[in-house]
Design brief:
Blueprint (H helix, E strand, L loop, with lengths): L4 H14 L4 E5 L2 E5 L10 E2 L8 H15 L4 E5 L7 H7 L2 E13 L10 E4 L4 H8 L4 H12 L5 E8 L2 E11 L2 E3 L1 E5 L8 H15 L4 E7 L3 H10 L2 E11 L1
Parallel strand pairs: 3-4, 9-11
Antiparallel strand pairs: 1-2, 4-12, 5-11, 5-12, 6-7, 7-8, 8-9, 8-10
């Protein structure tokens, strides 16, 4: 599925809105984000727009804000970041490149139905939350409830049940014609049994009902198993991004 630069920009912007940090600030068009640890997305500067005339001053503003929180200064760099040479300029300023991530997308199929072993929730249940946080680091586990509480209203939680037990989790945020695939997790003993695929099918069916035309997700490039799952479901690469962290 070829994705234009304009389409990728819309996906990246939707991804920012789909996982809002508890604290944010405008830095010359960039979005400074802080969540007291955990998620890198919620603790880095989103660089999809830039309205300033002095990039160095804007970078120093972001650094000052993170320093006040006792946190490392990070920037998320995608193929649609502004200005276009931001990655190279941050490298010169001593910012180290982190692990790569991929943004993937697929067209929503109207024929997909919610599987019999999948369930939809308006809010996260304790069982859903337990599955989602089971694979997170302690700091991410601690901040996850606060981030979930601040999600956009047009959202839905998904679970796959086996023998009456929640074994897989998922989340989707509808944003215009786009719907996200987030918070995908499966209990260790239930993997490779079609549970994650059931969640993906439920998300796609819900997205179609919301009038969305495309699903998108973001994953670490190193997570080969997850990417293989998504490719098998029909997702294709739409773009790449990485973080730059001040040494």
């Amino acid at each position: 599925m070829p994705v234009s630069r304009e389409q990728l920009a819309k996906i990246e912007a939707a991804a920012v809105r789909s996982w809002p940090a508890p604290e944010t600030a405008d830095v010359e068009g960039w979005l400074w984000r802080y969540a007291s640890g955990g998620s890198l997305r919620a603790n880095s500067v989103s660089t999809l727009a830039f309205s300033g005339n002095d990039l160095n001053a804007a970078v120093h503003d972001a650094e000052r804000r993170y320093q006040a929180k006792g946190a490392a200064c990070r920037f998320t760099i995608s193929e649609v970041s502004r200005p276009r040479d931001l990655d190279a300029r941050l490298a010169v300023m001593g910012y180290e490149r982190g692990e790569g991530h991929v943004t993937m997308a697929k067209e929503v199929a109207s024929s997909v139905r919610v599987p019999a072993d999948a369930e939809l929730y308006a809010d996260p249940t304790p069982d859903w939350l337990a599955v989602y946080v089971s694979g997170l680091s302690p700091d991410r586990r601690e901040i996850a409830p606060a981030i979930l509480a601040g999600l956009p209203a047009h959202r839905c939680y998904f679970a796959c049940h086996r023998a009456g037990v929640v074994v897989s989790s998922g989340l989707s945020i509808a944003d215009g014609g786009l719907a996200s695939v987030q918070c995908m997790a499966t209990r260790a003993g239930a993997r490779r049994n079609g549970c994650a695929k059931a969640v993906l099918s439920a998300i796609e069916a819900w997205a179609a009902a919301q009038g969305c035309t495309h699903l998108y997700l973001q994953a670490e490039t190193a997570n080969v198993a997850a990417i293989a799952l998504y490719e098998g479901y029909g997702f294709r690469n739409a773009g790449r991004y990485h973080l730059r962290t001040k040494r």
